[in-house]
Amino acid sequence: MSSQDDEPEYRVVAVVLISAILLAVGLALGMGIYKSRQSAPSAGPAAVVPVAAVVAVTTVTPVGDDASVVVENGVVKFYFASGKADLAAGALDALGEAIAAAKAGKKLVLSGFHDLTGDPAFNAELAKQRAIAVRSALVGAGVAEGAVELKKPEQTAGTGNNAEARRVEVLIVR
Asked: Most CB atoms closer than 10 Å: which of 11, 27, 33, 109?
């Protein structure tokens, strides 16, 4: 036997060894990223705050995977659990000022956003369903359908962490 006969065996062993090393490195990196996302400090869900009581909230960071609603600089923001379009408890309380404005003839503009995880087409549809859920709550509270406009943002992928990205914003248009 010559040394040329052994070369294919060495190549197979080398390919298997390199593949195993790449797999191990990829797994280690993936687990590191997964654990870093899981170990983010948890301050609990954001509190429900009546609109009239808030002048300006500078930082609101929803954490976890719970639905919540907050008011930030006069904008009502509904945050949603991953993959869901259910409104948080107390949603109508936070919409008090927006409901009053709509009944006084002002227009409400709703924009839905989503996070970057999963299928983009599904996420865009889910963002729309979330905005529709907020519109339904407003209409159920006595706001005329014509006073509520669903407006798709140019970029539906929300900013911030995933919990912040899954939101619907309600703006009062003067």
From this structure: 109
